[in-house]
Amino acid sequence: MIGLAIVFLGIVNIISRRSVVGMVLGLHFVMLGMSLLAVSVVDFSLDRVEAVAFGVFLVVLQTVVVASGYAISIRLFYNRRSTAMKNLNELRG
Amino acid sequence: MASLNYSLYLFFGAVAGVCAVLSLFLTETRATLLLVWLAGVSIGGCFLASGAEFLAIAQWLVSTILAIVTLFFSNLFDQSEDAPDPFFLVLGVICSVFCFFLISKYLAPAFVMSGLKFQNIPLAQIGKSLVVEHALEIQLICVICLIAAVGVGHLSRPEMDGKK
After folding, report:
1. Structure pTM?
2. Contacts of residue B93 in chain A, CB cutoff 8 Å?
3. ipTM exceeding the 0.90 mark
């Protein structure tokens, strides 16, 4: 339940922030909650080792997601000298 | 011992939840970043309390490195403040509370925390499981990491199509 609550709070963080850096922080909360929730559920339903293996994959994916978010913010900063969310549609080209 | 671990699990989970709630209302990016880092450390504490030391150490390392990287980027972008939009904040909180109670009411038996086993497992068993039983997943993760690395490098290069 704690993991689920953190996931929802992260989603609220994502949709309420005005900059990409804030959005990435919200995304990090979502990934943290997801890893706690997934490890708990897999541990409950399958096996302890399976839960840890699944958690390792999720921790690796956290870094990938955050790195992608910062790449987008770097692109925005090059274009507009700002990381405001309202400039995101400029990345369409 | 299991009850102590369960108490620690709840304590660390509560700390992570409080950090997530507080981060909604902060405007200072560094304070939000500190809360994200604290939440990551607390989630690692949850893993440690439930007996998954390897996962806890990995989570602590990743959270700390991501916090340092975020601090670097927030300074680079001169992003010291980021006030949340009040309309989306209220709307998101209302929708989240509704969804949370909906899920917790209908899926609650599946998420009973007393189902956690709270037992330590040897590191060799995790490594064997990862290499023998999850080889395909590891390869997929490696391909995802490679694609992400190439994509991040492509996106964050200084010039695109000859214009700055």
Report:
1. 0.81
2. 12
3. no
